[in-house]
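REQUEST FORM: STRUCTURE PREDICTION
Request ID: SP-0412
Submitted by: Lab K.M.
Chain count: 1
Length (residues): 283
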Amino acid sequence: MAEPKAAKSKSSIKPDFATIAGLVLALAGIAAGLIMEGGRVKDVAQVSAAIIVFGGTIGAVMITTPFSVLIRAGKQIGSVFFSRSESASAKVDEIIDFATQARKNGIVSLESRAAGIEDPFLRKALDLTVDGIEPAKIRDIMELEIVLFEQNAEAEAKVYEAAGGYAPTIGIIGAVLGLIQVMKNLANIDEVGRGIAVAFVATVYGVASANIFFLPAASKLKARAHDIVRMRELMLEGILGIAEGINQKLIKIKLEAYLEKNPASKTEKKSPAVAAKPVAAGG
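STATUS: Completed
RESULT:
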């Protein structure tokens, strides 16, 4: 008997227009305000200030953060500007198709299809199910994977939060360094005025970079991780339903809770993965 073909849920990477538009709007607003006050964009285009602020901020973050976490956080910068869209409804349909086949032909019949699953989390959960692992053990294994993912995502987001905390302070250091140079030219009042203006550019760079990019980027990464966790919880509940032999209609009713337009009531409730017992050090 030919196996039914599932409509695979495929993820696609798209530009995050909210991030791009927000960044452009913020920079344009600052530039417009500067020009309206009689200033010029080149007044704040100071290479030395940029080197002080961004060099100092990156250095401080490197001291604070383990190198492996720093590398992972650097790779996540693309997630700030691009989003991986994955249809939850398509994922539900895929899982229901698996459940239907398992009811008709047995769970073992899903073995050949597990290898073709794109999502590694779903593939692993289905492999465990096909291998006959008890549902309780599957939940423990996959919830642990969710918890570890959340911990890694939190650590990566904290790198950007740390940068957002250091940048304004480094900007003040840059301003002080500029004022030191101003003090050397107190005899020339024209140079003093110009020097003070240049000195405070570093403060602008520090405060602006923290509040326009670093801190918002940290929040965006947390939001991305939250979406992934919800999708993985959906997949886990579906696979557990298959492992327990629950009717596919009941599985679908349960998974449809994840498709609600306004899931505020669910997000406020702590997920079972988060409530899982912490892993003892050393295994």
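NOTES: Residues 13-258 form one domain.
Reviewed by: T.R.
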